[in-house]
Amino acid sequence: xxxxxxxxxxxxxxxxxxxxxxxxxxxxxxxxxxxxxxxxxxxxxxxxxxxxxxxxxxxxxxxxxxxxxxxxxxxxxxxxxxxxxxxxxxxxxxxxxxxxxxxxxxxxxxxxxxxxxxxxxxxxxxxxxxxxxxxxxxxxxxxxxxxxxxxxxxxxxxxxxxxxxxxxxxxxxxxxxxxxxxxxxxxxxxxxxxxxxxxxxxxxxxxxxxxxxxxxxxxxxxxxxxxxxxxxxxxxxxxxxxxxxxxxxxxxxxxxxxxxxxxxxxxxxxxxxxxxxxxxxxxxxxxxxxxxxxxxxxxxxxxxxxxxxxxxxxxxxxxxxxxxxxxxxxxxxxxxxxxxxxxxxxxxxxxxxxxxxxxxxxxxxxxxxxxxxxxxxxxxxxxxxxxxxxxxxxxxxxxxxxxxxxxxxxxxxxxxxxxxxxxxxxxxxxxxxxxxxxxxxxxxxxxxxxxxxxxxxxxxxxxxxxxxxxxxxxxxxxxxxxxxxxxxxxxxxxxxxxxxxxxxxxxxxxxxxxxxxxxxxxxxxxxx
Length: 528
Description:
Layout: H1 2-20, E1 23-25, H2 28-34, H3 45-56, H4 63-76, E2 83-85, H5 87-98, E3 100-103, E4 106-111, E5 114-120, H6 125-129, E6 136-140, E7 143-144, H7 152-159, E8 166-172, E9 178-184, E10 186-189, E11 193-199, E12 202-207, H8 214-227, E13 232-236, E14 243-244, H9 245-253, E15 261-267, E16 270-276, E17 287-292, H10 299-309, E18 314-317, E19 325-331, E20 337-346, H11 361-373, H12 380-384, E21 394-396, E22 402-404, E23 413-414, H13 424-431, H14 434-447, H15 453-459, H16 464-475, H17 483-488, H18 490-506, H19 508-517, H20 520-527
Parallel strand pairs: 1-14, 1-19, 12-13, 13-17, 17-18, 18-23
Antiparallel strand pairs: 2-20, 3-10, 4-5, 5-6, 6-7, 6-8, 8-9, 11-12, 15-16, 15-20, 19-20, 21-22
């Protein structure tokens, strides 16, 4: 079915995020104590076989790539989250979690072999130089750039570089004028959260990952929301695939009084380690709702599980992913690395929420799609009837409420999934970046009519005429447009088009403000 294809697309995205990021311990001493693998010992069979291939195989072979596959196969026989990381993947993950990189600080989309600027990071080198969304990059250091068969690796190599190194961009502005910008590369900060004031006394914070800067970013956002009069908080962890363990515990500490147990970890080579709250929490008293879904994993589940067990928050949404394993990253000298599972984590009540992987890696990765096909996302009863919960040990919160283990965090308030999102059409529109492409090509004149984000969100809506124009525009890039799917997903397509238009000018906060207007899980959390 076409709906299944859409489901699989989102499942793959989750697994790419969750498997490679997960929960990562950042204690270097831990790595020094426990890393005993060697790929150069004389008695190492893997090394011997690779040497034989390198010296004797009939065709030329990239031995490094074979080594990665071989090591990864071995690791995947242990558990689904122990993985080998090629150098580029390891670098990308670490940059995401460490909160930044050296470059010029912009996001882009390639249209007609031309790079269009779609976001300029506040405070970054590109922003300081004066670049803005909609700019077309024509030349780099005087040499042609547009129309030269652009690729993501080439663009990354062009824009990133050593701190204080320089690059000159020749761009065409929205008014058709061309301008040169001399940009000095520098530290680009990647924010891990977005926040805005909803209304009344309620604030909203979305955390996309648990990076090294997340707790600091949270405190700053919380301070600003309190200045606006916030007394209730909606914390959105949907789609958050994890991050650093110590960041998850630091975030839980923000909501809990001193000496409350947040989580504990233990493994065959590690004694039990307890993580307790301190007296430095910045939001220990206010009302709190936490949003989770089937893509909330790892560190997200540590935070949600702790606050559920201690009756500190109301958990709203759908059952989380179910990843209760902790990885330690062990780097090699060539930039590659291994994420090795070193412990399990347990919530304050003592439950492990790791779902079973006894049937192998394929079954494990198919589990989420199977949950969706069985209708679990549409009914709390279907969720509780899953084999992960049937016959599993039960646990209780501080106030005596029953909670579940072995299959993820089951929310206190279940909200079914919006089935209008589960179409192949919607997946194709997102996958081909057609929302942003349409904004670049068609919506910029409309944006000039609105001076503020609030005015745009309140006054602008996608008309049927604009919707039809977008579909006609997109049809040129799609293999087909199913009329039934088009009718089913029409409202969410309109919402996403408006949200992406808002993001183009005002950033992620505006995007989530628009997206949440029609989101049932968000609405339920605000009600609570």
